[in-house]
Amino acid sequence: MIPKELIERINELSRKNRSEGLTEEEQLERDNLRRQYVEAMRTRFKDVLDNVKVVSPEDVSTSTAQVNGLADKQSCSCGCGEKKLH
User: Record's family (predicted)?
Assistant: First the structure.
């Protein structure tokens, strides 16, 4: 999880940079915080991908709609109320 304080500080430095500019020390801090943020995002993304299971249609005996009990109740998802997909 990315600490809220990290994001808040990155945003604070970004606002300051747009309004008045950053000192060299603040630029280094911003760059370091951004690296931490990107690394945390990469780690989270990798964790998600590591837990993805790819299933081919041949491996599935029932569709998601059938599992959820929606197979005979299919209707348009746009909210028009039609009992058919269009």
Answer: Belongs to the UPF0291 family.
* Contact by Cβ (8 Å): 41, 49: no
**Domain covering 4-53: architecture:** Orthogonal Bundle (1.10)
| Domain boundary assignment for the chain | 4-53
* pLDDT score for 37: 96
Residue with tokens 């009990």: 69
CA distance from start to end of the chain: 41
Task: Measure the CA–CA gap between 38 and 45, rounded to whole angstroms.
Answer: 10
Instruction: Name the pTM for this structure.
Output: 0.59
34, amino acid identity: R
Phi/psi at 11 (5° precision):
-65, -40
